Amino acid sequence: MTVCIGNRLKQLQLPEPIAVIGGGVTGLSCFNVLRLAGIDCHIFDESDSVPPLFSEHGDKVMLGAFGVDQFDAYQTILLSPGVDMRRDCFAKNSAKLLTDIELFARLTHKPVVGVTGSNGKSTVVSLLHQVTQLNDQSYVLCGNIGLPVLEALVENEAHCDGYIVELSSYHLERSPSLKLVIGAWLNVSPDHLDRYDDYDNYVATKSRIFACSKHIVANAEDRHVRTYARLINKPITWFSKTGQSADYYLSGTLIQHGNQSVFDMNDFAQIGNHHSENVMAVFAMAERLGISQAVTAQACRDFTPLASRCVVVGEKDGVTFINDSKGTNIGATAAAISGMKQPIVLIAGGQGKGQDFNELAQAARGRVKVFELIGIDAQSMKESLHKAAPCVLHNSLDSAVRAAIDAAQPGDVVMLSPACASLDMFVNYLKRGEAFEALVKEWTNE
Questions:
Q1: Would you tell me which of 119, 205, 216, 421 could form a disulfide with 236, CB atoms 3.0–4.6 Å apart?
Q2: What is the count of structural domains for the chain?
């Protein structure tokens, strides 16, 4: 840890001792930063065995189910993003709660660009990061992608130009000190409803990005984004797939800025019409960072698609196979469906997170030929999706892929876009995507 960050952390005078909650990469980064600054802290995880990352920390690691009174003696409780702060053991200690994003915001002295949305965040921040690199600027990619924010801070604060942070709704729940030079809200659709009281609460949490942003980039097509943006008296750059009233808009395949064409989406490597919104958001943010449209356009042409995000992974007998395992909610899968011109055999399912799959049925009608459904919520999904196309239930991804191959005809697309979380069957969405790709390669003999 740099002396500078250590001194700043001590100057915050966080009440001790501190309980760090969560044994993943974010929890580890928080724990290490505090420990190296000489702060009294313990880390807690509900697993039964010590995660490998923590094996060296001995009596500082506390395992097992959280008790209602377990954290009462701690003066600060530092939560990882995936931990639900509504649980009794945290709710009763609400005044003590802190997040890694909030701590990051208190410590950094560099400009921060933030991006949120139900879908497209990772693509947008990765592309914007590539734009800044091409412009010889040293922005650090972190948050929900790349490094955890505190690790990014410790390693880069002394020499970077700023940070590009992917912000989930979890990050925005409790981050009053967060200040963004640019805040972009791409879209919102039902997701994480097992974590929020209702959809309105989820949307309101996403909207917090506007309150902490100096300049706003907003999707004029999304009614929720539009409604909240107009409540804020701040500069706004709008983007839209349909309307010339926006600062950036789509005309055919061309992205327009006023009367000027700045990019042809035919030159963008990632498939799907929905990516035009992602590219427009990047142009808008790059403009606010003082980067020329020529540099942004070149970065867009050079961009390599991220794994498991509408990536073609094989072709055989006229059938195209697409891995969109990152489609973990209805909005993402609906966008992927709408971006395809060919008939689709869709592999979907997993943990439904309380979503209403009638919305996916509407998006799929006339586009999806058959649903091959997997995972714990496959049956409940079928109750909604059978209105749009035949549904077949499977007990494994292997079975679903084989059935999809049998159902597909030349000119069709077999697409994995689950609209669900993966944790009922896989470690994460990437492992789910890798399993799909392996099955496709086995079939195509690649």
A1: 216
A2: 3
Q: Can you spell out the DSSP letters for 180-217?
A: EEEEEE----S--TTTSSSHHHHHHHHHHHHHTEEEEE
Q: Are residues 428 and 292 in the same domain?
A: no
**Bridge-partner residues for 371, per DSSP?**
346, 391
User: Exposed, middle or buried by CB within 10 Å (0-12, 13-18, 19+), for 64?
Assistant: exposed
Please tell me the distance from the alpha carbon of residue 377 to that of residue 383, in angstroms, as a whole number: 10
Residues 332 and 257 in one domain: no
Quick check: 56 pLDDT over 70? no
Which residue in this structure is represented by tokens 């990632």? 270
One-character DSSP codes across 230-283 = TTS-S-EEEEESS-TTSSEEEETTEEEETTEEEEEGGG-SS-STTHHHHHHHHH
CA distance 424 to 191: 17
Domain that holds residue 84: 14-98
pLDDT for 164-212, tens place per residue? Answer: 999 999 899 889 999 999 999 999 987 666 777 888 888 999 999 999 9
Q: Is 304 exposed, middle or buried (0-12, 13-18, 19+ CB in 10 A)?
A: exposed
Q: Are strands 260-264 and 254-257 parallel, antiparallel or unpaired?
A: antiparallel
- pLDDT above 90 (res 396): yes
Tell me the CATH number at 76.
3.40.50.720
Give the Cα separation of 9 and 18 in Å (integer): 13
Q: What are phi and psi of 208, to 5 degrees?
A: -60, -20
Residue 446 has pLDDT above 80, yes or no: no
Q: Mean pLDDT throughout 81-106?
A: 93
Short-list 202, 39, 175, CA closest to 118: 202
> Based on the domain organization, do 343 and 422 belong to the same domain?
yes
pTM (two decimals): 0.81
The last residue of a domain, from among 302, 330, 364: 302
> Is the residue at 5 inside a domain?
no
Q: How far apart are CA 318 and CA 409, in angstroms?
A: 7
Give 110's DSSP letter: S
